[in-house]
Design a protein that fits this description.
single chain, 162 residues, mainly alpha, two-stranded antiparallel ribbon, 46% helix, globular
Length: 162
């Protein structure tokens, strides 16, 4: 599998593909691919999706793990809010919080995923908003898994994420 496939997909999805238009034909390409202003419609909010049993079980397990770590979560909430404000509209993931918390000595550096499963609850309790986008983790311990991206509430309103 191509190691850069994920990055190229993200670029295309965000409309920043480098091979979008042949050189010198940008205006023609834009004219052909951009709908007329009268045709553009605002995006409708996504319809609520049914939650699978596995998703509901996973959330229950996350909440149960969080209940056992209330003290640490209380310490991490301000850290998550600080990171989200500094990140701006790009947002943060659990991996970003984990890395910062390890650097500050708030969580053990050798913790496994099961021991740190409560970190997923920290971002929601901090009042951050999920964007619906996922970003690949940069931490070796998480094996490059995709993490939900969260933003501070003021960035959520600008992005249209609520």
């Amino acid at each position: 599998m191509d190691p850069h496939l994920y990055e190229r997909r993200e670029e295309r999805r965000r409309g920043r593909s480098q091979d979008a238009a042949p050189e010198g034909q940008e205006d023609l390409f834009a004219a052909l691919t951009t709908p007329a202003p009268s045709v553009r419609r605002p995006l409708a909010p996504a319809a609520p999706q049914a939650q699978s049993h596995a998703v509901l079980e996973g959330r229950a397990a996350r909440d149960q793990a969080a209940a056992a770590h209330e003290g640490v979560i209380a310490l991490l909430i301000p850290v998550a809010q600080e990171l989200a404000e500094r990140a701006g509209p790009g947002g943060i993931t659990v991996a970003d919080l984990r890395e910062t918390a390890m650097q500050r000595g708030l969580i053990p550096p050798s913790g496994s995923g099961r021991e740190l499963s409560y970190l997923g609850a920290v971002l929601r309790r901090a009042g951050l908003k999920a964007t619906g986008e996922r970003r690949r983790s940069h931490l070796e311990q998480t094996h490059g898994n995709l993490n939900m991206t969260y933003v501070a509430p003021r960035w959520a309103t600008e992005r249209g994420t609520l």
